[in-house]
Predict the 3D structure of the following.
Amino acid sequence: MTEPRWLDADEMAAWNAFVEAGNLVNRRVEQQLREQAGLSHPQYEILVRLSAAPEGEVRMSELAQLVVTSKSGLTYQVTQLEKAGLVGRRTCETDDRGVIARLTEAGRRKLEETAPGHVELVREHLIDVLDRDQLRALTDALGVVSRKLRGS
Amino acid sequence: MTEPRWLDADEMAAWNAFVEAGNLVNRRVEQQLREQAGLSHPQYEILVRLSAAPEGEVRMSELAQLVVTSKSGLTYQVTQLEKAGLVGRRTCETDDRGVIARLTEAGRRKLEETAPGHVELVREHLIDVLDRDQLRALTDALGVVSRKLRGS
DNA sequence: ACCTCGTGGTTCAAATTCGAACAAGATAGA
DNA sequence: TCTATCTTGTTCGAATTTGAACCACGAGGT
């Protein structure tokens, strides 16, 4: 095993900042959604993705990619949302294996009443603490990271 | 309820990038540590923080802050690490309530043999895909976010 | 000394996560 | 057509996470 290229101070700082900020923000968001709407962050994400799709419908496999979770994880969360009446399931006409998740009217209302508080929090902790340039730099950098990971 | 300030396209992109990159990287790191060392990311983080501290000792409450987890979560993970012989517990002399986690020799060895692969992955997916300026911008921006969240 | 309040850590139940195993359906080539 | 191979989504068990409840202890005032 050859000696690895260790991280220098700047690189270490970058990694730490990434992990720390991610954890802190996630915790905060999770907590806020939970107490304000009784939703987990993944659940909220699912509602958002569905609402953005035509007919409010997205196929399970695609949805799993969008919210970055495992297949079984998505199955679980969609089941929860279904019990709550916020999402429905139907089978795909062209592919009998396929299952399509669909946002219900109640789901859309739930999202509408939850979004303001959520956006407020995102603003307070991420958007409004950065200026335009910082925001762009952040988006660009993280975009590179994501694309790299998506393609492998 | 007053109408919230919604996110414009750039702001939305920033938030999406943040969440997506965080999820993707986390999943990847988790998977890598699990199969290469049988450790979860939080567990690895604990070992890192301990190894960086004088005597390899950190108090539980402080450790929870460092790795950004709940008290109970930390208790659980330290217990796991203790079972594996990588970490020890002792009570604080000056405060009978306090518990101090301590990195064992086996723990230090485990960290030494796990770190190279981990660093390699961090490099591949975060560090090496960005140039110096991007890395600095990322660190600065996320630093602002973390500081803001730490102080509230 | 005593009492009150805050802190530190653990325990507990409930919810969530993941991967592996599975069943059922699509797909492509001989 | 037959068959071998992917894909899809669910199920299952094991591991993990969280907040609330709890107990023990320190700190400050009376």
Remarks:
- The mean pLDDT of chain A is 95.
- DSSP finds six helices and three strands in chain A.
- Strands of chain A lie at 57-59, 87-91, 99-103.
